[in-house]
Design a protein that fits this description.
It contains one helix and eight strands; from the N terminus they run H-E-E-E-E-E-E-E-E. By secondary structure, the protein is an alpha+beta fold. The protein has a single domain, classed as Lipocalin, CATH 2.40.128.
């Protein structure tokens, strides 16, 4: 009888270890660098609000060598690969602080988040005359 009880206890312990090992896939690693998940080449689906067509293009996100908690988004708002927007990363959130791009002719600012392998953004551009609002989704091709 004691052997049967021990076998059942051993079996249940093995099952618990199996379930615990699956838990890691459901939660972010608290020790991982939060910037890493944003890095790489992304496909962007961008739309002006109110909707005025859908633009699809590539962006490249790199780490800002001047600030380890910031990323640089190349080709932001389809302005060319040499144009880069800065964004501050905090966990799964990002903040695009007010800044100028395109030879200081376009002011941008906004925010976004990372969820389910995608980056969602909401931001505005001001070219001196027109204030425009955009939403964008970045996903890995």
């Amino acid at each position: 009888m004691k052997i049967t009880a021990r076998l059942i206890l051993l079996f249940i312990s093995g099952l618990m270890l199996t379930f615990v090992s699956c838990e890691d896939d459901l939660f972010d690693d608290p020790f991982a660098d939060p910037v890493d998940k944003f890095l790489g080449t992304w496909k962007c689906n961008e739309q002006e609000i109110p909707p005025d067509g859908l633009w699809v293009y590539d962006v490249v996100i790199t780490r800002n060598p001047q600030n380890s908690s910031e990323i640089l988004i190349s080709n932001f708002n389809l302005q060319g690969s040499s144009e880069r927007a800065r964004a501050l990363i905090t966990g799964n959130s990002l903040t695009i602080p007010t800044q100028l791009i395109c030879d200081d002719t376009i002011e941008i600012k906004g925010s976004g988040s990372f969820s389910n392998g995608e980056v969602s953004l909401s931001y505005t551009t001001l070219d001196g005359a027109d204030l425009k609002s955009f939403t964008a989704k970045y996903f890995k091709p």
